[in-house]
Amino acid sequence: MHLERLRSHQQNMPKTRFVIAVDGPSGAGKSTICRALAARLGFTYIDTGAMYRCVGLAAREAGIDADDRAGLEALCHHLDIRFAPANGENRVLLDGRDVSPEIRTPASDTWASAVSRVPEVRRALVALQRRLGEAGRVILEGRDAGTVIFPDAELKIYLDADLAVRARRRHAEQTARGHAVTLAEVERDIARRDLSDSTRDHAPLRQATDARRLDTSNLDTAAVIAAIARMIEETEGTGNQHGD
Ligand code: DC
Questions:
Q1: CB atoms near residue 16 (< 10 Å)
Q2: How buried is residue 133: exposed, middle or buried, by Cβ count under 10 Å (0-12/13-18/19+)?
Q3: Which of 9, 21, 170, 189 is deepest in the core (most CB within 10 A)?
Q4: Residue 84, in any domain of the structure
């Protein structure tokens, strides 16, 4: 039960900032892991990918193209993006509207990736993410959490997994949501987005030099959480090495 001990240890130090930055490609398990860890540690969970998804959706609805940089910048400054944890899920509110299902469709993957290449969008969202994170005990997940948003995060983790494993996970998620896609389509789409996310000029996906890499290809959720709990303990120097 060492996560519970870590939680109370953290709660006894309410003024201590502790930022956990989790980066990695699509399907590495970031959302599942971060959501579960945040709930168990009592940390605030910030899903930065959901914020790019909101900008993609809002741009689509407003008829703003991904190459209209000024239009996107103005849009970002007027958007109100909030997270509302509910029943173990993280609902995403865009201007007060729950857009959680809409920002997870296959089409929204493409819009989010397109707007995430725009420097004006990144600047606006990074400023917002820093404000949300400054509060203290937070877990941020994304592509640039440890390299750009919080380069001084107390703990940086890079979650990765083989492409075939990531595609299987995403495919299961998409079909559970009722989207008719084949495994081959999902794998092709993830490979395309990997390339786009890691080769863009601004804040490309890469592992921070001081990030701990964790390959989740052969690990289940409980094993990944246990591994990260050990990293938190080591980082905090609590010396507590008991198993879950
Ligand atoms: O993690 P995700 O699949 O929800 O991210 C959606 C898109 O946003 C994806 O193409 C990567 C991009 N993104 C980004 O560029 N920077 C982040 N910090 C988070 C996501």
A1: 11
A2: buried
A3: 21
A4: yes
Nearest to 21 by CA among 7, 8, 33: 33
Residue 241 is predicted with a pLDDT of 34
Residue with CA at minimum distance from ligand 1 atom 5: 49
Give residue-wise pLDDT tens across range 16-70: 789 999 999 988 999 999 999 998 888 999 999 999 999 999 999 999 999 999 9
Name the residue of 32, 117, 143, 195 to mutate for ligand 1: max ligand atoms within 8 A of Cβ: 143
Length of the chain in residues, anyone? 244
Q: How many CB atoms lie within 10 A of CB 56?
A: 24
Query: How many independent structural domains does the chain possess?
Result: 1
Question: Which ligand 1 atom sits nearest the alpha carbon of residue 145?
Answer: 18
In which domain, by residue range, is 44 found?
Answer: 2-229
Q: Two tokens at 218?
A: 């052969």
Measured by CA distance, the residue closest to atom 1 of ligand 1 is 49
Judge whether 170 lies within some domain: yes
- Specify if 236 maps to a domain: no
Residues with CB under 6 A from ligand 1: 26, 48-50, 52-53, 112-113, 116, 142-144, 193, 197
In a domain, 234, yes or no: no
**CB contact at 8 A, 48 and 145:** yes
Tell which phi-psi region holds residue 136, choosing left (phi > 0), alpha (psi between -120 and 50) or beta: left
- Can you give the CATH number for the domain in which 59 is found? 3.40.50.300
Nearest ligand 1 atom, CA 148: 18
